[in-house]
Amino acid sequence: MAGHSDIHEYLADFEDIPGTRVYTAARARKGYHLNQFAMSLMKPENRQRWLADERAYINEWPMTQEQREAVLARDYNRLLDLGGNIYFLAKVFSTDGLSFVQAVSTMTGMSVEDYQAMMVAGGRSPEGQRSIKGDS
Amino acid sequence: MAGHSDIHEYLADFEDIPGTRVYTAARARKGYHLNQFAMSLMKPENRQRWLADERAYINEWPMTQEQREAVLARDYNRLLDLGGNIYFLAKVFSTDGLSFVQAVSTMTGMSVEDYQAMMVAGGRSPEGQRSIKGDS
Amino acid sequence: MAKITAGVASSHVPLLGVASDQGKDRDDYFGPIFAGYDWTREWIAKPENKPDVVILVYNDHASAFDMSIIPTFAIGCGERYAPADEGWGPRKVPDVEGHPDLAWHIAQSLILDEFDMTIINEMDVDHGLTVPLTMMYDKPDAWPVKVIPLAVNVVTYPPPSGNRCWSLGEAIARAVNSFGEDLNVQIWGTGGMSHQLQGQRAGLINAEWDNMFLDKLIGDTQDLRHVPHIEYLRETGSEGIEMVMWLIMRGALGKSTKCLHRHYHVPCSNTAIGHIVLEPVDGSVPPSPTLEGNNDAAQAAI
Amino acid sequence: MAKITAGVASSHVPLLGVASDQGKDRDDYFGPIFAGYDWTREWIAKPENKPDVVILVYNDHASAFDMSIIPTFAIGCGERYAPADEGWGPRKVPDVEGHPDLAWHIAQSLILDEFDMTIINEMDVDHGLTVPLTMMYDKPDAWPVKVIPLAVNVVTYPPPSGNRCWSLGEAIARAVNSFGEDLNVQIWGTGGMSHQLQGQRAGLINAEWDNMFLDKLIGDTQDLRHVPHIEYLRETGSEGIEMVMWLIMRGALGKSTKCLHRHYHVPCSNTAIGHIVLEPVDGSVPPSPTLEGNNDAAQAAI
Ligand SMILES: [Fe+3]
Ligand SMILES: [Fe+3]
Hints:
The complex is a heterotetramer, with two copies of chain A (136 residues) and two copies of chain C (302 residues). By secondary structure, chain A is mostly helical. Chain A has helices at residues 7-14, 25-30, 32-40, 44-52, 54-59, 65-72, 76-81, 86-95, 100-105, 112-120. In chain C, a hairpin with a 2-residue loop joins strand 10 (256-268) and strand 11. Chain C has an eight-stranded mixed β-sheet with strand order 7-4-8-2-9-1-11-10, sandwiched between helices. The complex binds fe (iii) ion (2 copies). Residues 12, 59, 61, 128, 191, 242 of chain C line the site of one fe (iii) ion. Chains A, B: GO terms for molecular function: protocatechuate 4,5-dioxygenase activity. Chains A, B: Keywords: Oxidoreductase.
């Protein structure tokens, strides 16, 4: 199997996309309990307990303290770095009553108004956003 | 796709084996709640409730009355006809404290002693047991 | 005999469900999006087009499946499915009625065809499945079609390759063709088009690439089979990968297709909306290559 | 580099677990069965043979999976697994420790190779997995090996074909070969041999067929790929179908094998016990045929 190109090369490419964390096994493992915590907010009784005392509720989950603080701060970029997946994290911001646009815009460094204006104008161009190495 | 041989032919063959019910989709659908009931006996608290009052416990499950009576009678051949699967039904006879040999022998029309003697002597021969049509 | 008569693709942005549920679907923002579905709503209501069953290819967004179990391809063989609670209560839309006879037939056929399906009998269905129903049928008291959910993992990497998705579509067509009952079956591919919901690059839209993708669903090219995951990610944002699900739909339509209707709009929330209605021209698919399964040559080899 | 150094097959009759747990494993009934494993216990304890990780192919017997979800191929990527309660309390054997690094590597590689895996992070494991550990390791305080559970559906029809199982084995070998860490990996196939646990035909045993099957695991023949399900059912009883799982083990050993040890005994409970230890002679497997994945030709085609 000379010249064999495998899962390592496949995964390595994913680290070359600007401002993007692809949800690979490495991230899924790191974020396991963080994401399971977020998932628990699909049940109304859990949402109530969470809203009543966020810190008490999150302390029940076997997450790192860093992950807990990032959830409490609603720091979504940080949460992605700590293994969060956006569809799981969506249970957190949905419980806050935020839409995808409101929550997602917080990760871009733009105000929600500027972000929305960018979207209405056709969205973020892929030019210069495709590759870190290739700078294209 | 002329000459196409498909899932229908694949499944039809299974009805040609003497004294055997292959656990196909048709059986899995018929026995769905029967098997889910049996599965519930994996939990000790359910086993206790079941042993305390079998009829009350089984009436909680959305099964046919025929399935319920066959369970209460431990009629395993009947249960196979009604969509039961042996690995699910095993939770019922395990809860009764029966081994696989004890429970399985009840389906053969043999006493457990005769069945065990047959096994020690090398088991049931496949001769004449392979096909209903082919009689081989 | 059952037959796949059409393929439909559509984005499934959750906000479209919200817009419909709150009666905002004809306002300035959503009007142009929903207007692009008017043609389809009229077409699908005509008796000659009305499907009996839709095989609805979608992905679960951390609703039915959490991290404890991640099936690559899961087919719903159950009687019915309730809308999932995604964090703000379940959508107030009808339950989704299944078609267990056809679903089990397809599931069994696919496994003989060497697709390693996960069979699901009980699950809730999220916006990925209910939003396309809304787009096609508006707000009926009951969905006027039975649905076979086909959930694809596009969240945890790797999702299935484009080639695998296309081949699955072909195998679905073989399975439908061998079902005895007369049924008008449609297959829908959902998700996409370009969008990225995460990080500093969120909001990415690539109208040019999206339209190339729509172009290549039409006719007889199979180029899209060979688009690697990294291209979806670079060109269409991290959630653009959902488009691999459209290839299951395309594969099921066979050798060549005709476009009946096409719609593209930016934006809806963070996403480019794409919608296409395709009809098979030559619906033939290759015979099954498997040994256990489906053709004379294979049977002879046993 | 990780490497598959041996393949082991063994029946996994629950009664063997009971015999071991109750100290009856050397009585008149069980003695001859366990005696056939003495060679293996000695062999596997030698430092040069001792595996770091076992990929343990087995089937769940309505323990971790009920009828609500039925994965064809499920791979355990979790940290650990507890013995399941099968109706008389869990076996008092150690928890099973996983190897998430290798398991995720294999899972990801298999999906690129177009196997539609279900990834499992949490589950209990039943006799199908714990009995083979007992047979190979007796009663240690902790299992001296890490285990990657690979659960195959052989309960609800259709199970995967023999050919699909063999091909999965080949893909597992490719995946293990591309794992960076030095690991001695074994693969075990469990279940079988002939047995039927249901109906008037229960107790069926076919020693001749079983021994033909054992013969054909050795050397370079690939005949067993092509045995259809109906043959297992007719010849070896309805539960003999479990033997397709042995083909995953055999496929992973590559082109040709040598037999190091072999054992066959009738009966154990309702079942014929079979056990074989194989070593790859030429462990080469075909390159990945997929586009997204694994070889130069495929990559060039993209
Ligand atoms: Fe989506
Ligand atoms: Fe078994």
